[in-house]
């Protein structure tokens, strides 16, 4: 139409409406489809959660991120995105029609909630129609994939088998997890014969005292652990601990290379290796909770680092005891 005039605007408007409807279909149905797949264990369980507006908001966010990534990869080129869209549509048509062929054959009635499924008396005719449609759409999809491979179709040809492998890997993980967590033949849980508590401290202050109070509620077998990087600081901690430690043993770990986390981890692993059967070791870490979120960046986050380092060790529990600071007042 020469890029102007009413016919050109009508064509552009119609194209825009078609694309809007196509995008709306994806955002309306993909979150529900992903939630069904997640419920069956082929996608992460988080996709089954509904947001405050009762929609699968996480599926919508995943789709939005994926759409942005595709647009960025193909530089928003319509000529490269059209094969991607066409192969996806044709492949979905092919799979859905093959599925119908397998479910059109007569069989017993299936009672579902609020309905009864009965086979169609014209199932042969419909089976032939779906078979012809599946073959035709499969042929066109293959032709698109071969002729447009270098123009964008490669992402479908390569990524879809990879995604199928990922889906089955996720399903296998959930299946194995269910077996591991099953109570079948589990028997009675073994009784904890000893509960040892270690308090990791960086000094003696209000947060340390609150952590000690919590540790006293867990066990009588308590030790405090301090990593010393200079003798003067260690002596100061020992003096204050004598006043506020309530008789609990203080272990001072020398760190000549001024490392903080490594000596503590080494000591914890040494204690863990000497545990008796059915003995639990709990690491209590005082944690400041400042008023502003960015203040968290100013602290060592020892509890989080210990949890990451010891997550694969059985029988070790990492507990952080929050000490909240609110408007300059103490708030535990």
What would you say this structure looks like, in words?
This protein folds into three domains: 1-73, no CATH class; 78-106 and 120-184; 194-331, 3-Layer(aba) Sandwich (Rossmann fold), CATH 3.40.50. The mean pLDDT is 85. The N and C termini lie far apart (73 Å). The protein has helices spanning 5-39, 57-73, 78-103, 123-147, 154-181, 206-218, 231-244, 261-273, 302-310; strands at 110-112, 115-117, 194-201, 221-228, 249-254, 279-289, 316-326, 329-331. Helix 1 (5-39) packs across helix 2 (57-73) and helix 3 (78-103) runs antiparallel to helix 4. With 332 residues, it is α/β, with parallel strands linked by helices.
Summarize the topology:
Elements: H1 5-39, H2 57-73, H3 78-103, E1 110-112, E2 115-117, H4 123-147, H5 154-181, E3 194-201, H6 206-218, E4 221-228, H7 231-244, E5 249-254, H8 261-273, E6 279-289, H9 302-310, E7 316-326, E8 329-331
Helix pairs in contact: 1-2, 3-4
List the keywords.
332 residues, alpha/beta, Rossmann fold, 3 domains, two-stranded antiparallel sheet, 9 helices, 8 strands, 54% helix
Helix content: 40-55%
- How large is the share of residues in beta strands? 15-25%
Structure classification: alpha/beta
Q: In CATH terms, what is the architecture of the largest domain?
A: 3-Layer(aba) Sandwich
Mean pLDDT: 85
Count of alpha/pi helices: 9
Order of helices and strands: HHHEEHHEHEHEHEHEE
Q: Sheet bearing the most strands, described?
A: 6 strands, mixed
- Counting structural domains, the number is 3
**Number of strand segments:** 8
CATH superfamily of the largest domain: HUPs
**Uncertain regions spanning at least 5 consecutive residues:** none
Distance between the termini: 73 Å
Shape: elongated
CATH names the topology of the largest domain as: Rossmann fold
- How is the largest sheet built, in terms of strand order? 5-4-3-6-7-8
